[in-house]
Amino acid sequence: MGKVVMYGSVSADGFIADTNDQPGPLFEWLISGDVPLDDSGALKVSQASYDHTRSYWDRIGVTICGRHVFDLTDGWDGKPPSGIDHVVVVTHRPPPDGWDPEAPFHFVDGVKAAVTKAQQLAGDRLIEVAAGNVGGQALAAGLIDEVRMDVAPVILGSGKRYFGAVDAQHLLEDPDVVIQGTRVLHLNYRVRR
Question: How many CA atoms lie less than 13 Å away from 61 in the CB half-sphere?
Fold first, then answer.
């Protein structure tokens, strides 16, 4: 089965967006280089960030996110982001009216059901869980194997927390990846079991 990885860009003070759901300068690293990260050419990063991020993106089979992220992105117009095969959406609501039932999006109730569905879809590829409330719930439930952070050199002061509403201690191993890119520090931690 594929590894389950919690992932997101985060401010130095632990936020993934401001109180209005805007990432602001958190994604500045995605346009601060000269190496195209995807086919669109809109994202250009440093060579170090490209080597780290592209190899990760290429291994993702399924992304898990919450309904809030799904709604903010308008469901990526029914096309999973970054070439990912499937998106599993954690929600208590049905798909939006008019949603294409053929789109590779799966709506489930709860993080455990989401990880189970993602494992069925991903095979041996990675399962990415978006940072925030859903990621924090998956961490608290013991479902996360690794935490990946793209730490941006910005202090937001308040907003949406990387680990959501996690209110208990969780230990991570020492970082096994520390890569400095332009306007970002990439960190990977295995979750201590």
Answer: 16
Work out the number of other CB atoms within 10 angstroms of the CB of residue 165: 10
Q: How many helices (H) and strands (E) does the chain have?
A: 4, 12
Architecture of domain 4-96+103-190: 3-Layer(aba) Sandwich (3.40)
- Answer positive or negative: Cα dihedral of 64, 66, 68, 74: positive
How is the chain split into domains, by residue range?
Answer: 4-96+103-190
**Angle CA 12–148–160, to nearest 5:** 50
Question: Using one digit for the tens of pLDDT, what is the confidence trace for 147-156?
Answer: 999 999 999 9
- Helices 133-140 and 111-122: crossing angle in degrees, nearest 10, is 90
In the block, which residue shows the tokens 């500045």? 28
Q: What is the DSSP letter of 75?
A: G
DSSP string, 130-167: ETTHHHHHHHHTT--SEEEEEEES----SSEETTTT--
Instruction: Classify strands 35-36 and 44-45 as parallel, antiparallel or unpaired.
Output: antiparallel
**Rounded distance, CA 98 to CA 112, Å?**
27
- CA separation (Å) from 64 to 80, 93, 170, 176, 182? 11, 16, 21, 23, 27
pTM over 0.85? The answer is yes
Query: Over the stretch 48-85, which tens digit does the pLDDT of each residue have?
Result: 999 999 999 999 999 999 999 999 999 999 999 888 99
Angle at 34 between CA 28 and CA 35, to 5 degrees: 100
